[in-house]
């Protein structure tokens, strides 16, 4: 199958094609100059290199370097009602920077546990959970203790956005209902509601956070977690 014919409608709607003449301004090199062991193959059997910094796939088609940029979802900066509103937006961005690496660690741990348990029978799951039940909860405990109230709220929001479960549900899944109950009590003492759902449509702070996430992802300041852009806000 001719890759040019397959890619054309895709490029028109979802990507930008940049030819070799303009590649120098982006630091793009011919495909042959990238490490061959890092090349990938798309669904049509065509080899390409994925440039993480540029968020682009680099192909060689008919002897020319072709760059296919990732689709960018542009989120407008929220309308600020006053200067205080704008200051909070900038304040929230600083908190996001501090929390994000910790969130990525916790999310990866949680997903690893889920993957490990996927093909276990009920007996093996019980043993596995007993062996590792303290790991993720202990990670939360340290983070919630060290972070400020706002940072703890951001952490809980990010986990809910990424997993579809609030922090209370995650802890209940791994450690049981009684433990989750007490974690919710501890969270409320610090003004962190572990049961709150992430909803940018209805919650002003979540609207700010969603805008900040895409702004930082698109600019390359933060790296999206796997599946980050699949999120759809509840109505």
Q: How would you summarize this macromolecular structure in one to three sentences?
A:
The protein is of the alpha+beta class and 235 residues long. It is 56% helix and 9% strand. It is built from eight helices and five strands.
Protein architecture, described:
The chain has about 240 residues and is an alpha+beta fold. About 55% of the residues lie in helices and about 10% in strands. The protein is built from eight helices and five strands, in the order αβαββββαααααα. The chain has a five-stranded antiparallel sheet with strand order 1-5-4-3-2. A hairpin with a 5-residue loop joins strand 2 and strand 3. Helix 6 (about 165-175) packs antiparallel against helix 7 (about 175-190).
Give me some keywords for this one.
235 residues, alpha+beta, five-stranded antiparallel beta sheet, 8 helices, 5 strands, 56% helix, disordered N terminus
Class per helix and strand makeup? alpha+beta
Strand tally is 5
What proportion strand? 5-15%
Spell out the helices and strands N to C.
Answer: HEHEEEEHHHHHH
What is the helical fraction, as a range of percent? 55-70%
Major sheet, described briefly?
5 strands, antiparallel
What do the pLDDT scores average to? 77
The oligomeric state of the chains shown is: single chain
* Separate helix tally: 8
Q: Give unreliable regions as ranges.
A: 1-25
Give the end-to-end Cα distance, rounded to a whole number of Å: 41 Å
**Rounded radius of gyration (Å):** 22 Å
Shape: flat
Spatial order of the strands forming the largest sheet: 1-5-4-3-2
């Amino acid at each position: 199958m001719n890759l040019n014919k397959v890619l054309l409608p895709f490029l028109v709607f979802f990507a930008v094609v940049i030819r070799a003449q303009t590649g120098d301004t982006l630091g793009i090199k011919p495909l042959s100059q990238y490490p061959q062991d890092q090349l990938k193959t798309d669904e049509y059997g065509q080899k390409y290199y994925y440039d993480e910094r540029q968020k682009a796939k680099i192909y060689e088609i008919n002897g020319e370097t072709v760059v296919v940029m990732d689709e960018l979802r542009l989120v407008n900066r929220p309308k600020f009602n006053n200067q205080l509103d704008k200051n909070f937006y900038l304040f929230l961005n600083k908190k996001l920077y501090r929390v994000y690496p910790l969130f990525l660690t916790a999310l990866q741990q949680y997903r690893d546990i889920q993957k490990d348990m996927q093909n276990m029978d009920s007996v093996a799951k019980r043993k596995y959970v007993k062996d590792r039940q303290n790991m993720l909860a202990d990670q939360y405990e340290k983070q919630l203790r060290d972070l400020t109230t706002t940072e703890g709220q951001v952490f809980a929001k990010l986990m809910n956005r990424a997993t579809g479960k609030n922090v209370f549900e995650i802890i209940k899944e791994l450690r049981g209902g009684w433990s989750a109950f007490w974690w919710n009590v501890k969270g409320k003492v610090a003004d962190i509601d572990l049961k709150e759902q992430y909803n940018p449509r209805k919650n002003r702070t979540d609207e700010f956070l969603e805008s900040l996430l895409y702004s930082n992802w698109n600019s390359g300041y933060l790296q999206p977690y796997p599946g980050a852009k699949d999120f759809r806000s509840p109505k």
